[in-house]
Amino acid sequence: MKIRAPQLIWIGIIALGAWMLWSALAPNETRKIRGRLDSLASAISVTSGQSNLMRIAQASDLSPFFTEDFTVRIDYPGGAFSSRTRAESVQMIKRLKISTEVESLEVIFEEIEIDLAPDKTTATARLTGVVHLNEQRHWLTDRFEFQLQKIDGAWRIANARQIQPGSL
Amino acid sequence: MEWVKTLIFGKRPARAIIRIVILVALVFGIFGYGVQHVRIAGVSMLPTFQPGTIRFVNKWVYRAQDPQRGDIVALRFKDSQKTLLAKRIVGLPGETIHIVDGAIFANGSKLEEPYLNQPIADWNDPPYELNSDEYFVIGDNRSMDESNHLFGVCKRSQILGKFFE
What is the number of other CB atoms lying within 10 angstroms of the CB of residue B18? Predict the structure, then answer.
C-alpha cells in the first residue's frame, strides 16, 4: 500500500494530538512538580482588592503543599522568614496574607530546574523566586532550592532555602 | 502562484536564497554569541536604566580586555543561566572596597561617581579586599533602602558582558 503526502500529514497530526492528550492526562513527574510550584505561588499571592475572607480561604489550602516537618529559612529585606514545622509556616503565611500592610503580593517562580531522583519519590527544584509587594516591584528576587518528597501520590515541599544568601 | 514566488525570491531565486542564508547566519551569529538583549526589570539602576526598557549586552568585549571601573555589566545571578543582574563595576581585583554613608572608597580613596544624580542614602559596608578574580558591583540607585538593593562581590566568571550605553 502506497502512503501519499496528505496521508502522512494526517498521520502526523493524529500522532501529535495523541501525544498532547497523553501529556495532559498523564503528565510526567517533572510537569507535576512544576504545576505544584505554580499552584503554590498562586496560593501565597494576594491580588489587590481581595477580601480578607478570600485571603484566609486561600491560606487554609496551603498545608497540602508541605510535609509535616517542613523547614524554611528565607531572608528578605529587613527580616527573615524561618520555621521548622508546617503548622508554623502556614500560620506565618496566613498572618502575612491578612496583614493590613499587604495590599497585593505577587509570587512568581521562574527558571525552574528539576532534578528527579532515580526512585522518583524525591526531587530537588532550583528556581528564581520573584516577589512584588504592594507597589514595590522586585521587592525580593533570589535563587531558591526546594527539596520535595512524593507522599501519597502528591509532591510536597520538605525544605526551602535560599542559594548562597546575601551574595550575588 | 508565480507572482508569490517572485515576491518572496525575486527574479533570481538562487541569489535570494544565498542572501537569506547569509542574513539568517548573521542574525544567529550576532544574537547567539555577540549580543544579548535584556529587559530591565528592577529599579536598582535608576536613573541610568529605566525599568521595562530593553538594553543590549556586548558579550565579546571582555574577550579582549578586562572589565573596567565604571562599566555597566550584565552578570549571571548565582547559579542561574537566565536571570541576569545589571550592575556597575566600582571595585577591581585586589582593591579594598568599603562604603561610608553611600560613598564608595577604593583603597581608601573616595570614587568620583558623576552618574549618581540622586540623593544618596546612608549605606555603610565594612572594608572587603577583593581576590584576583573578584569585582565589586553596585547599582546606580543609592537613594533606595540598602536592604532592598542587591550589591557586592561577583566573580569574573559571572560577568556575561558590558551593556551598550
Answer: 11
Smallest Cα distance from B76 to chain A, Å: 8
Alpha helices in B10-94 (DSSP H): 13-29, 61-64
**CA–CA distance, B44 with A141 (Å, rounded to integer):** 12
Closest CA–CA distance from residue B2 to any residue of chain A (Å): 23
Which chain A residues are Cβ-neighbours of B148 within 8 angstroms? 77, 136, 139
How does pLDDT run across B114-138, given as a tens digit for each residue?
888 777 888 898 999 999 999 999 9
Q: What are the φ/ψ torsions at residue B80 (nearest 5 degrees)?
A: -70, 145
pTM, whole model, 2 decimals? 0.78
Match 559571572 to its residue by C-alpha cell.
Answer: B158
* CA gap B160, B144 in Å, rounded: 26
B132 in catalytic set: no
Complex prediction ipTM: 0.72
Contact B47, B140 (CB under 8 A): yes
